[in-house]
Amino acid sequence: MDGSDFKPKDSFENVISLTNHEPLIGFAEMWYNIFLWALFSSIFVHVLAGLIAFCRLRKHKIGRWISVLILAMGVLSPLTGGVITSAAIAGFYRGSDFQMKPFYAFCWGISQTVIVVVVSFSRILSTL
Fold first, then answer.
1. Which of 8, 38, 67, 128 could form a disulfide with 109 if both were Cys (CB 3.0 to 4.6 A apart)?
2. Which of 55, 116, 63, 54 is nearest to 85 (CA)?
3. Which residues cross the membrane (predicted)?
4. Are 12 and 33 contacting, i.e. CB atoms less than 8 angstroms apart?
């Protein structure tokens, strides 16, 4: 399998299960797995943050709409920066002829979200 027979439907099922022990070899296959985990984890974190913001600011005239912006960033962030960083990671693995296990793609995707959360909190604290 050289990555040319990449099927997103099959890969999507493999991404969710994490029980596939076959290594990811092609660039597109690696990129797709990393990207989906970054997208899923980012949406999860931003939905939680949006719910907290809405609950805390529900009586504020303008503040209740902040939760909508938080949810939008949960989708836009992985669709812009997540695509690029996932491609960089997959390109490194492909260029080095490493075989990526699906669990490693999971770890790379989750770590992208963790880094975004850490950077976001560090920017907020520096403005106080």
1. 38
2. 116
3. 34-54, 66-91, 103-125
4. no
Which region, left, alpha or beta, applies to residue 97 given φ > 0 means left and ψ of -120 to 50 means alpha?
A: left
Cα gap 66→1, rounded to integer Å:
46
Which residues of the chain fall below pLDDT 70?
Answer: 1-20, 125-128
Amino acid, single-letter form, for residue 74: G
Three-state SS for 22? coil
Amino acid at 72: A
Q: Are 72 and 41 in contact (CB under 8 A)?
A: no
Give the pLDDT confidence score for residue 9 in this predicted structure. Answer: 47
Which of 35, 32, 16 is CA-nearest to residue 77? Answer: 35
Contact 37, 106 (CB under 8 A): yes
